[in-house]
Write a structure and sequence with these properties.
Blueprint (H helix, E strand, L loop, with lengths): L4 H32 L2 H7 L17 H4 L6 H11 L7 H30 L7 H40 L1
Helix pairs in contact: 1-4, 1-6, 4-5, 5-6
Length: 168
């Protein structure tokens, strides 16, 4: 007997939860590492390593580590919410995960468009008087992003655990 539409949707929901959990773990621990070792301070204060301008994927930039996986985080959380909507036992956790993920994505977009270009990609390191306020703003928004990624990871993990228990 073949799989029903409901069975396929459950398999998809399980797969999406796995992807969402993995991508959010990557995002959370990467964000935590950036804050703990103060990557922004180091990158903002460093001079270009050659005559080439500093870029989002240049030496020392965390962009090259985030680029392959981070863009999948929010879409995976939202897709897991849609695919798992019929399961009332984890609907609330999926909503929290998707909302937190979206919040973190918006905070990231703000940093990428408004703060990072000035702080990290100027031809030369900024003077301390210009760098400090930008770093302060970066860390404030990053705290929101770190919190959002932690909440999303916890909610998605909890939703996935409920699904695994109900399927097992």
């Amino acid at each position: 007997m073949g799989q029903t539409s409901s069975d396929r949707r459950d398999v998809l929901a399980d797969w999406l939860l796995g992807v969402a959990e993995f991508t959010h773990a990557h995002w959370f621990f990467g964000n935590l590492y950036e804050a703990v070792v103060k990557i922004p301070d180091r990158v903002a204060a460093s001079a270009p390593s050659s005559d080439l301008p500093r870029t989002p994927f240049g030496a020392g930039s965390p962009g090259r580590y985030y680029a392959p996986i981070a863009p999948l985080s929010a879409p995976a959380a939202v897709a897991a919410l849609v695919a798992g909507w019929k399961h009332s036992d984890n609907k609330a956790w999926l909503m929290v995960g998707a909302a937190s993920s979206a919040t973190g994505a918006v905070a990231t977009a703000y940093l990428l468009r408004s703060v990072n270009p000035k702080l990290f990609f100027s031809p030369y390191p900024l003077e301390e008087t210009r760098r400090r306020p930008l770093l302060k703003r970066w860390y404030r928004v990053h705290a929101l992003r770190l919190t959002a990624s932690a909440v999303a990871l916890a909610a998605i993990h909890h939703a996935r655990t409920i699904r695994l228990r109900s399927n097992g």
